[in-house]
Every structure is written in structure tokens, then in C-alpha cells.
Amino acid sequence: MDRIVVLSGAGLSAESGLGTFRDMGGIWTRYDLSEVATPEGFAADPAKVHDFYNARRANMAGAAPNAAHDALARLSGRADVTLVTQNIDDLLERAGASGVIHMHGELSRALCHACRARWDAPASMAPGDPCPACAAPATRPDVVWFGEVPYHMERIEAALADADLFVSIGTSGQVYPAAGFVEMARLSGARTLELNLEASGGRFDEVREGPATEVVPTWVAGLIGDASA
Fold it and tell me: What pLDDT band is residue 92 in, cutting at 50, 70 and 90?
């Protein structure tokens, strides 16, 4: 069976009500990303950053996995697949997928800026919250901000080097290092497929356009022969 690497982006969760960066009127458009999604922004105003991520955490709690998440969860149980996501939500896990690689961290986790300890985040976080490991008031969301190195890159690159098929779902393909994954896969001899609302312009062997809740279940059904996908 093919070894598959799936990269998912914001488009996977958009139909669950979790907006993409470019949604007009969405949560991202009401904030300056340099103030809420950079280490410098956190240092300047940690309360503002926590308010932003508290709102996103509440939004995630009120969302539910959609048909695309469900299809990928089914695929993960039937095929040799590595699920890599740029999303910081937990909808793939709630759909039943396991072993998801969150290259940009997880909204449901907290990180100590002082000692690097990690733990499950409460629904609401504040600048004065003490780290459970070192007691420093240095807690932050365990997410990768602009200017920081994504998590698990060695695992991801190893999976791409070994892949027979690379599939990109719901991502613009404009932000590195994820934007380079299709080329890494191609150089390793993998076939490449994009499932997206519209083509990103990347060098894919095949592109299927449409909402994630339509194109992802259809692709999975064709792959594993599951009429319920």
C-alpha cells in the first residue's frame, strides 16, 4: 500500500466555522498579527495575546469536525498515512484520527516561556498564570508564532522522503516551510495531489477543486473503497 503524507491547512476546518487568515470579517482581520502572533507581540502585551487565543480556544470548543475531518480519520485507520497539519485546532483528533503531527502547535496546550514545560491549557489563560513545573508567570499558548521554527520538522521531512503520495488539503501553499513540501515530495519521487477550494499554483501532478467537505471524502472513498467516506 502507498505511503501517504497529508498536509492540511485552514481550509480543512473553515467549514466547521474556524476561519482562515483571509476570511473577510473573520477573527484574524480584527487583529494586527504582529501584535498577537509573534514573540515580540507577546513580550509587549501578553494580556492582548492571551485574550486573542482565549477567543480562538472558545471558538474551537464550539466547533465540530466536518466531513473532511471524518474522512481523514477513516483514512488514518485504513492506510499507511502520516497526517501533518498547520492547524492548531483539535478537530482531526475529535474525528478519531490519532498521531496527528501539529507543526504549528496546539491551541489546547500551554507552554512555559521560561522552562519550556508543556501541559493541557485551561479554557482561559492570563499573563500571571504560574507554570506548574517552575511556577514562573511565563505561560503562553503552545503555538508556533511568526518567526519561530515549526515543530517536528525532522519527522515531517523523513515522512516526505519516504512517501509515495503527497496530498495538500486546504492550504494556500504560500508559507514556508510547508510551501516547500510539494517540491520535497516530488524530489523523492512521490506523486502529488492538491485538494483545495481553488488551485494554489503549486507544482502538483493533479489538482481537485472544491470545498473540503466534498473533495476530501470523495478522494478518500476512491482510495479506500469506503462508501461512507
Answer: very high
Q: What is the pTM assigned to this prediction?
A: 0.92
φ and ψ at residue 207, rounded to 5 degrees: -130, 130
Distances (CA, A) of 91 to 71, 156, 221: 12, 20, 20
**Is 172 annotated to bind ligand?**
yes
* pLDDT given for residue 201 in this prediction: 86
Domain ranges of the chain: 1-18+65-104+150-229, 27-62+105-143
Tell me the Cα Rg of the chain: 18
61 carries a ligand binding annotation? no
Cα dist from 57 to 7, 147, 168, 171, whole Å: 22, 22, 25, 21
Q: Residue 108 annotated as binding?
A: no
> Residue 192, exposed/middle/buried by CB under 10 A (0-12, 13-18, 19+)?
buried
Catalytic residue among 50, 69, 102, 104: 104
CA distances from 120 to 48, 62, 160 (A): 21, 18, 29
Q: Which CATH number fits domain 27-62+105-143: 3.30.365.10, 3.30.1600.10, 3.40.50.720, 3.90.950.10?
A: 3.30.1600.10
pLDDT for 96-113, tens place per residue?
999 999 999 999 999 999
Is 86 assigned a ligand-binding role in the annotation? yes
102 in active site: no
